[in-house]
């Protein structure tokens, strides 16, 4: 079953239309790659799906409800199911707070941990889940490597217990060897947690290695779509 379905979605910035009538679905356990040149609308779609920008037309539906017009009561529980991880986890981590705190806060915010000690323990577990030493929880972001920080970004996203994970250029800023580790982690997580994963990247070699299906966007329109091996097959 699909975890999210995007139907005929249009997204505007003022009078500029960035996404024109795009439709796709992502199933549980699947990695769907969104590829396309810079400016083709990938991030706009990602941010909109994560609830950060309302589409001007079309629908976005999660298996638990309508994402475009959720009721005030349902919105928080629906929103936490769709989590976004960005290119530079660095920029969204508070430099003066420990990385454990960064993972603990959303646990409290989303109500997935009831008490402060419970949140601290769950944060350590999530840090272990992204294959890091839980003792790193006490460090500041600057005391971690770029790859470690990106994993903390993933751990923080997992705190919402999402079933949809949007990975927006998460390996772009990393060295090639570190990229491979983060990709393997993502691949493991979607299997273990049955995550529907929307994987945004402009790196076609990376996409080829990890995606089950691919959508190609150009100027806000889907120009190609299919299983990875078909999309990458020589014409
Ligand atoms: P991609 O992620 O594929 O590089 P974006 O979603 O960032 O593409 O951009 C899609 C289009 O929307 C581009 O034409 C871009 O210039 C435009 N755009 C993106 N962000 C804004 C913004 N904040 N204000 C106006 N236009 C924007
Ligand atoms: P405190 O340590 O101040 O008691 P909590 O541990 O209760 O804070 O965490 C709640 C915090 O989560 C909020 O203060 C808020 O800054 C932060 N937060 C806000 N929006 C989000 C979000 N979308 N995802 C995760 N955390 C968020």
Automatic annotation (TrEMBL):
UniProt domain ABC transporter: residue ranges: 4-235
Family from the record: Belongs to the ABC transporter superfamily.
Name of the protein in its database record: Peptide ABC transporter ATP-binding protein
Full-protein positions shown: 287 to 521 of 559
